[in-house]
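Same chain as my last thread, 299 residues:
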Amino acid sequence: MGAKTRRELPLHLMIVPGLVFIILFSYVPMAGIVIAFQKFIPAKGLFGDQQWVGWSNFEYVMHLPSFSQVLLNTLLIAGSKLILGLLVPIVFAILLNEVKNAVLKRTVQTTIYLPYFLSWVVLGGILVDILSPSGGIVNGLLTSLGLPKIFFLGDNDWFPTTLIGSDVWKNFGYGTIVYLAAITGIDPGLYEAATIDGANRWRKIWHITLPGMRMVIVLLSVLSLGQLLNAGFDQVFNLYSPQVYESGDILDTFVYRIGLLDAQYGVATAVGFFKSIVSLILISASYFFAYYFARYRIF
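reply #2:
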């Protein structure tokens, strides 16, 4: 064993638990893809004598009246989360970086980071109480201002906005910390030189801070684009109801209802397979554009 191998061995060993996790929970379950092409009967087992139906499950899904609406909801909600999930942390990190009071800066960082550690089960209960049209704080405030009450979790016009806003609120603290770390890696000498040249604060942000964050922004954008069809099952499942299926039903909840509640396993697997193929195409395209425009590459 060479010196380089011995030196890097601990790093490779650190990867082993992650690799085992991915193999067990991501690659081994791929054997179940065959269910998408079968009229699956659980009693016969995964490798039993199942009836093969070819592309019938896919055709059935595509002709469902609700599927196009579900796909549109998924793209709208996930796309909005993706865009705002990138923009809000960038803006907030830049603004927070301009705060000179160290105590205030650390307090704000900790406060905005806390929701990231809470599960959607906990946050869902909090949001139900806060947004309740009968005794919620938000509607109480609206009533005191002479405005009508809003059923945030039961109105199809408001439910997608509630999903997007609450997701950004939960996760933007993590992104802010990441971008603040990128900002701290920028050479302070660049800011000093810009000050001598007479650049104001906004010029420094535009010509120094943002370019210094570029690689991190590209990296997170690439990683996020592959999740375009993941609109957040945990969040939607804990917040939605039949009243808002029209505007809040996404592919993951659609698969849950068809597969586990209606026991149409082949159809549910077909939807999941379709989603995986589209996600693979998106993440491959995002990696290509990241290399083309920013010369970013993983290997």
